Amino acid sequence: MAVTIKDIAKYAGVSVTTVSRALNGYPDVSEETREKIKKIAEELNYSPNSIARGLVMNKTHTVGLVVSELIKPGAYHPFFLEILAGIKDGLRKDKYDLILFTVDPASQDITSYEKLCSDRKVDGAIVEGLKLSDPYIEEIKKTDIPTVLIDIPILNEKVGYVSSDNVHAAFEATSYLIRLGHKKIGFINGHNDAAVSFERLEGYKKALQKNSIPYKDEYVVFDDFTQDGGYNCFKKMVFENPEITAIFHASDLMAIGALKAAQDLGMRVPDDISIVGFDDIELASLITPGLTTIRQENYKIGYMAARHLLSIIKGETPKHIVVPHRLVIRQSAKKI
Questions:
Q1: pTM value?
Q2: CATH number of 166-296
Q3: Which residue in 52, 129, 242, 259 is a FRET match for 163, CA 20 to 30 A apart?
């Protein structure tokens, strides 16, 4: 039979309430009594029931990670995996557990954000990968559940968010190509239902404007942040706009897809066209030519999201945390 706090109370000669308050760190128990109870608990090999303790304290030491359809057979999402590693490490210090919720628009219509979190009794949630049109976005704007979003700009009394400075990062990437002498620069962007797509487009436009280069709608295309998206868009862009000498991509996966498309078209990178990505996933340094890209600190984004969520749970004010980025120069872009 498992040892309970009733057994500890019997051996210590105190009430069950005193045992509970001593083990949970309440200050109204004397240090002498607390140490006596702890010693008895250790001798009896007492293991607390975290669920029962959570119900008593109205805290479960569990948070949810709400993601869109990122995890499915055949999908490769290094960005998400790096963020997940950071979240886990960010929670470990405070001994919080993580529950993964994968959602899509249909499931969001069936189960509200509040019900999703309350049914699993999580103390708060981190949200990543949702589209701006997803039902949960409007719910989160009004939620009382401590929440931290990744790359989704919502800020209120219970909700904060963590991101890179996507506008400035895209500005840096485009400005680098301009410094190399490129003036006809395409932009293969992510889908137009993501906040980062609009932010990176803004940065691209700002770099062109600062250098007196006209913006052209036909030089910008939207697709999924995937290799297939980059592959298909690259072929379409260079066919319709053969004068383009460089292309900035909203993700490394798209840039890697573009590299494959260039190879299939008999084009040499960077001799015939320069390519720049965004994320600096591990593969970016392993392919040939090495991919020039914006390095996002994905692990740190996940870590900071976890730490910020715990601070909101403790009553601190939500805020926007910006994680620094940097331009990583390799061989996929050259001066003309």
A1: 0.81
A2: 3.40.50.2300
A3: 259
